[in-house]
Amino acid sequence: MTETTTHPAGPAEDTALNIRPILHYTAKNTWLNDPNGLVWHRGVYHLFYQNNPFDNVWGNMSWGHATSTDLLHWTEHPVAIACDEEEDVFSGSIVVDHDNTSGFGTVEDPALVAIYTSAFKEGSVHQGTQAQSLAFSTDAGMTWSKYAGNPVLGRGSAHFRDPKVFSYEGPAGSCWVMVAVEAQHQQVVLYRSANLKDWEYLSTFGPANATGGEWECPDLFPLPVDGDPDSVKWVLVVNINPGAVAGGSGGQYFVGDFDGVQFTADFDSLVPADADGTTDLRHCLWLDWGRDYYAAVSFSNAPENRRIMIGWMNNWDYANSLPTSPWRSEMSLAREVELATVDGLPRLVQRPVLPLDCGEPARTIQDVELHDSLLQLPDATPGSAQLIEAEILPGTARTVAFRLLGASGGTAATVLSFDAVTSRLTLDRRNSGNTAFHGKFASAESAPVKLDGGVLRLRVIVDHCSVEVFAQGGRVVLSDLVFPVSGNLGTEVCVEGGTAIVRKLAVTALS
Ligand code: FRU
Question: Ligand 1: residues whose CB is within 6 Å?
Answer without folding.
Answer: 1, 33-34, 50, 61, 90-91, 117, 161-162, 216-217, 295
